[in-house]
Amino acid sequence: MKKIFSLFLNLIGLGIFSLLAQENTENNSGQITGNFQTDAQYYIEDQSIGAIAVKEYTLVNSWANFIYSNQNFSAGFRYEGYMNTLLGYPNSGGINDGIGIPFRWAMFSKDNIEITVGNFYEQFGNGLVLRSYEEKMLGIDNALDGFRIKYQLYKGINLTGLIAKQRYYWNHGPGIIRGFDGAIQINEVFQSLEESSLRLNIGGSFVSKFQHEDHPLYNLPDNVAAMAGRIMIKYKNFDINSEYAYKINDPSLDNSYIFKPGQALLINTSYAKKGLGIVLATKWVDNMAFRNDRNASLTDLNINQLPEITKNHIYVLPAFYPYATQPNGEWGAKAEIMYKIPKNTLLGGKYGTNISLNYSRAHDIKRTQINDSTPVFPPASGTYGYNTKFFSIGNKLYFQDINVEISKKWSKKVLSNFSYVYLIYNYDVLRGITGHGNVYAHIGIADMTYKFENSTALKTEFQHMYTKQDEGSWVLGMIEYSLPGWFFTVFDNWNYGNLDSKKHYYSIGFGHVSGGTRIQLSYGKQRAGVMCIGGVCRNVPASNGISVSISSTF
Amino acid sequence: MKYIKFAVISFVLVIFVTSCDIIEEPYTKEGVFVWHGRKILIYDFTGHKCGNCPRAHETINSLVNLYGEAVVPVAIHCTAFARVTGTDSTQAYYYDFRTDIGDYLGGRMTEPGYYGELTLPIGLVNNLAKDKLLSHTAWPTEVAKFISSFPEYLIEIQPEYSNETNIIKADIKVKTSITNSRKIALTVFITEEHIINWQTDYSKTPKDIQNYEHNHVLRAGFNGAWGEVIKNNTNVTALGDEYVKSYSITKGNDWKIQNCIIVAFVYDVNTYEVLQAEIMKVQ
Q1: What are A's interface residues with B at a Cβ cutoff of 8 A?
Q2: Which fold is adopted by the domain B36-281?
C-alpha cells in the first residue's frame, strides 16, 4: 500500500520532490499518515423553529489528509468533498460545493533550510499581519499556495520568506502575498545568556499584498503592506508577550474605502506558579482588516487574524452570545485569575478546589472627524476617514463578560463544575444589524459527573440563562452516559422565556470510539445563532435532522 | 558564502520594503464624482405662462438624469406668469398652480414676494438666501459644488394617508451625521408629479402646449415657507443626535395622492444653506 502511494505521489506530478522521495525510498520506505472525517446531516423541514429542508435531503462535508514522510522529505494532499455543503458554512451561490484536491504540498529540509512548495499554513507572530489557517468548524481555509523558505541564519535566528496566492474555495484570491519574518531568540544567539532566567525573543514581520487597482472612483494602492514587531520576555514566573502592527492605506469593503492606515497592539502578560495563575491582556485595533481581495467580506480571504482576548465558552448557553472581533476598531482587556485551594483545607477538601475568575470587556475606539464637513460614521468613502489617538477608548460598549468557575473533585467518583456568567452583548455591532440593542444575560451552570466502578460514568449538565432581551430566557438539561468505547447523550434546550413561542430544541445521540476512529449519530433540533472560534464567526441556521459524524486517523 | 547570504537577505528586504503604495490626496480619480448621500434642493420659480421656464425644467431633468435621487426639485409657481385665465376648465391656463407659500416667496401677480421681483425662470440651489438666486444655466455648476460633500444630517420620512379623512401625515426624523454647532430649521412640503396641463413654451410652435407634464409642483407646506426651528442654539450636535417631528395636512381636492411626494429639508438658520433634503412618496 505504501509503495503504491509513493508511486501515486510521483504520478500526480510533484516533480523533483517526488523524485527525491523515490530516491530516498530505496533506503527507507518512509511513513504514511493521515486522517479522515465526514459530517453528514439529513434535513427535516420544521417551520416551528425556522428550519428548512434541502433539495438533496442530505448534505455532506468530507475530507481526508494523506501525508508521506521520509527523512527530510514530506509531501501530502487533502481530498475534500462538499456534496453539497452543510447549511451554515460559507457557500454563497454554491461556491464551496464540489470535490477535488485543493491542498497539496511537498517539503524538504537540508542544512539550515526548509523549502515548501504548494499549499501551506503560516503565521507570523500573533497573526496580526499574517495568519493562514484552517478551521473546519467555521468553514475557513485560507491556505497559501506558493513557495516558502525557512532558513536558520544563525543559531537562534530564524528567517521565513514566502510568496503565494491564497485559497478561495476551489480557486485562488486575486492578490499575491509576499511575506518575510525574522525571529531572534536572544538567549540562543548569545551563549552567555543561555542559562539566564531572563528569556528574550524578538521578531519582525513584513507582508505585502499585490492586487491590481481597478476601482472606477478611487486611486487605490496596488500594493498594500503591513508590518509588525514583537517581543516576548520571560522572567521566572512572569511572561510578557506583545506585538504592534501597522498597515498602510488599504481602502476596502471592510473599511468603506477610507485611506487611513491601520494599527494594532496586543499585550499578553501572565504570572504562574503552583496553584496560582494570573493573566492580564489588552488589545487595541484600528482599521486592521487585511484581505487578499479588497472586495471580500465575511470570513473570505483574510490575510491576518486579530486574536480575541475574551473567553471562548464551551458550555452551550454562554456560547449563544460570543464575541466577534471588530477589525475596524476595538479596544479590549482581560483579567483572569486561576487559583487552586490546596487540598486538605476547609474549602479545598480532600482533592483541592479550582477557582477561575475571568473578566473581559471590549469597546469601540474613539474617533473624531477629520474636518467639519466629513462624517465619522458611516465612514466617508474616498477620504482619510477619521482621526483617532493611539489606544483611545470609545464610549460604546461592545461586550462584557464576567464569569466565575469552580471545579471540584468531591471523591474518586464525583466531580463537579459550577459556573456563573454575566454577559453584556452589543447585538447591533456584533451581529451587524440595527435596532436590537444590548443583551444582558445571567447564566448559571451545574455540571456533575459520577464515575461508576465499571469504567462507566454519568454526566449531567444543568444550565439556565436569564435575560429579558433577544429570545428571552433558556434552560438546558443534558445527560450523558459513557462506558468504554461508547457514549449516549440526550439533552433539551428550552426557550421558555420566549414570548412568541416557547420552543424546545432537543437532541438524542450516541457515539462509538475505537482506536483512532469515532462514529457519532444524533437526531435533534438546532437553534439559529452564531458560532465563533477565536473571534471569527459564522451564522448557524436553525435545523432539524439526523447527523452522522465519522472521523478516523491512521 | 556569508556575503552571498547577506546579499540575498538584503535583496529580499529591499523588494519587500518597496512593495507598498502610499496614496496621497486626492484619493478620488480625476473627472469622476462620488456621491455620499447629500441631496441637493432646487427651488425652481416658475409659471405656466412663462415661455422660457421649460428651459429650466429641462435643466432639472438633465440634473435628475445625471445625479438621480441626489437632486430634489421643487417647482414653485409664482408671479404674474402663474396667473389663471378663469375657472372654465375648457379654457387654456385655467388651472391654478399657485400656493400661499409660492405667493409669499415668489410673489403673486405684480406683488413681489420675499425674494423680490423675480425674472423667471430663476431658482435657488441648496441655499435659501436672497442673494443666492441663480439663472437655471448656473444650476449645474452649483449642484456640482455640493454633490460630493457629505450630508450633515440624514432625514427619514414616515408618511401616512387616510382616505376617510383625507389627512396626510408626515413623521420626520432628522439624525445628525456630522458633529456641528448649527442652529437649524426643518421645512416640509408636499409636491405632486405628472400634472398634465397648459404651459407656454417659446421654443415650440404653437407656443401654447396643452398636455405639458408639470413635475415637482409645490402643493402646500406642512409647516410654512420657513419651516420650524428644531435646534434653536449653537450648542454642539453630536453624531446620532435626533430630532423628531410630526406634521399633518389636508389633501387638496385636485391632488392625485398616488403622485404626491413629501419633501423635507433641513437648513442652517443663519446661513440659509440647505444641509440635507429627502423625499418620500405619500403612497
Answers
A1: 153, 159, 161, 178, 180, 206, 208, 210, 215-225, 248-249, 251, 259, 369, 372-377, 380-384
A2: Immunoglobulin-like (2.60.40)
Q: Cell for B151?
A: 450630508
Cell of B167: 389627512
8 A C-beta contact, residue A296 and residue A173:
yes
Give which of A198, A212, A203 is closest to A157, Cα–Cα: A203
DSSP per-residue string spanning A465-477: EE-SSTT--EEEE
Contact with chain A for residue B152, Cβ under 8 A: yes
What's at B33, amino acid-wise? F
* Contact list, A206 vs chain B (CB under 8 Å): 13, 16-17
Considering the domain A308-554 in this protein, what is its CATH number? 2.40.160
Domain boundaries, given as residue ranges, for chain B: 36-281
Q: Closest CB to A180: pick one of B5, B16, B177.
A: B16
Beta bridge partners of A417: A407, A447
CA of B208 vs chain A CAs: smallest distance (Å): 45
Indicate whether this complex's ipTM tops 0.90: no
| Inter-chain CB proximity B239 and A375 less than 8 Å | yes
Could you tell me how many residues make up chain A?
554
3-class SS at A531?
A: strand
Q: Where are the domains of chain A?
A: 111-306, 308-554
- Interval B189-230: pLDDT, tens: 999 999 999 999 999 999 999 999 999 999 999 999 999 999
The overall pTM is greater than 0.80: yes
Query: Does A30 have pLDDT greater than 60?
Result: yes
Give the Cα separation of A15 and A301 in Å (integer). 29
Q: Tens of pLDDT along A374-397?
A: 888 888 888 999 999 999 999 999
